[in-house]
Specification:
The structure is a homodimer of 354-residue chains.
Chain A lengths: L12 H4 L9 E7 L4 E7 L15 E5 L4 H4 L1 H18 L7 E8 L5 H11 L8 E6 H10 L5 E6 L3 E6 L5 E5 L11 H17 L7 H9 L5 H9 L3 H5 L2 H9 L3 H25 L10 E6 L11 H12 L3 E4 L5 H22 L1
Parallel strand pairs in A: 1-4, 4-5, 6-9, 9-10
Antiparallel strand pairs in A: 1-2, 2-3, 6-7, 7-8
Chain lengths: 354, 354
Amino acid sequence: MKKRNRNGEIWDFEHEMPVVAGAGDVILGLDGGTTSTVCICMPIIPFSDSPSDPPPVLARAVAGCSNHNSVGEAAARETLEKVMADALLKSGSNRSAVRAVCLAVSGVNHPTDQQRILNWLRYIFPSHVGLYVQNDAVAALASGTMGKLHGCVLIAGTGTIAYGFTEDGREARAAGAGPILGDWGSGYGIAAQALTAVIKAHDGRGLETMLTSSILETLGLSSPDELIGWTYADPSWARIAALVPVVVSCAEAGDDVANRILYDSVHDLASSVKAVVQRLGLCGEDGKHSFPLVMVGGVLEANKRWDIGKEVIRCISKYYPGTIAIRPKVEPAVGAALLAWNFFMKESLRGNLS
Amino acid sequence: MKKRNRNGEIWDFEHEMPVVAGAGDVILGLDGGTTSTVCICMPIIPFSDSPSDPPPVLARAVAGCSNHNSVGEAAARETLEKVMADALLKSGSNRSAVRAVCLAVSGVNHPTDQQRILNWLRYIFPSHVGLYVQNDAVAALASGTMGKLHGCVLIAGTGTIAYGFTEDGREARAAGAGPILGDWGSGYGIAAQALTAVIKAHDGRGLETMLTSSILETLGLSSPDELIGWTYADPSWARIAALVPVVVSCAEAGDDVANRILYDSVHDLASSVKAVVQRLGLCGEDGKHSFPLVMVGGVLEANKRWDIGKEVIRCISKYYPGTIAIRPKVEPAVGAALLAWNFFMKESLRGNLS
């Protein structure tokens, strides 16, 4: 295979280390988030088989941020290319063994984003390799459904999004528009509302709250006035979202303001899921059909007493008794690899039938 | 006078152009905002007089942003120094004629901010010059009260803040903590909520609204999905706040969602004013004392039918019938100059008495 990319040195190992004979064909699954990027290399499974549980993983590689909105396109591409090369090298394989790649990245909000990334991937892999670009939420869904695109996924970490698919391939999303555009149930949203509550209490516009002393102590500040400088000193969303555990602790200790913020976030997260379920008709005409609801992200993980994920499930199940909540056992990058496997199988079958 | 600053060339004109004999002593007032910085040079008025209405202005100079949180300290300092030199040059004066300077800048939220700027100003002006550093809201108040620090000012432009003083010098503020920390009544807040409403309607989480077609048309976009890319492409708060007129037009055309956003902003702005009035007791014990409420900023200016400022005044007057609403006839930089004059007079009188 010719070197097709500018960063030729990334692929130098392909010449230096020939593939182990019989290593077989592989697929790559990538989960590219705002914090880190994970690439999974999986063996390709013979046509008749379903992926085993847990799916076989040949190698796993990790790199930094690959959200082009955050680090720019050139840096995002280099990160993605490096992490793929790293995973192939670790698995004793190389590009000639790759049959399919699924790249699930945050910041893919529009078909033009998808096409731009596909064009660039095609520059690295020859035309017989199946290439699939998805929003990272799709890989998160697949991580809970073993690669099947059916049901709804709710992600709530620093950001939040709900994404769903029907069995016949229709899709819908809600939220995922970032902190300026109303993702209030996210970790960032919860923490920003807690900071706002501290400022409001200090101003005399809001109730006194335990959040004041807890947040100031956590950040090593002596007055709510200093929160303004702290907040704008570094615009990273993850830095603000890191205050979520403080809010949960205050709520668990009985603080009304903190409890109100968490209940509002439960309501917001549930309303994203409901919007997706409703638009896709996942609950069927009688509202009682069963569908998987995959729950992913730090905000939805269980805490001592306040379990935001459990409250969201309770809220959704009231409307849709067929909700089957799933907390995935594998990471989203494995979901992406399973997706690549499924897409590739479908296309191969279609090829065989035609 | 020796050159005391690094940017010596800024003051070169002082050697090249001697002061016109008898030009007299002057004061400088500066209003440093996130968009621009204005410096006013006023003649100093004999001790017994009050400033005339309108106050006499010798020169006016304009420069760019001087908010150190936004452009960094070095750039902010250079802008402030240049705009002062420019105003003095235009008035045919120089630093030796300056008796007092009031620098009112946004981003002064803490006594340490104030002290840092004072230390640096002292490097430019000798010790007999009165130097005063204030939050820019204080100059806005003074622009409506002809330099008297009494009453409350509400600013609502891109950002919002309420700031008040009692006659015996106590002060209080509310809001002014920026978009992350709950300044929802601001121009930025109104526009961000409108953008959120478009996303929510598109997702199926909110009511259909006229804002969708109006905002997409204004921005030249074809789908709400494209709003995400547009929003995060440039994080400038002013760029988002520029959508306020679209929201007002939709509200005037009867759109419920737009009307709800504007009424919420009225409520938020009024609650900032109430917090300040309450904490300072500006309304007296019976709640009926009169006090000035100075209204400043684009959001509070009258529109065809929807007049946010008028609604805020109506709302405040219900609680505090002694509210005297003032829309200033002079700009905040003139307010800063009047403040410099007042501070300087007080210190001179104190000096004469002691």
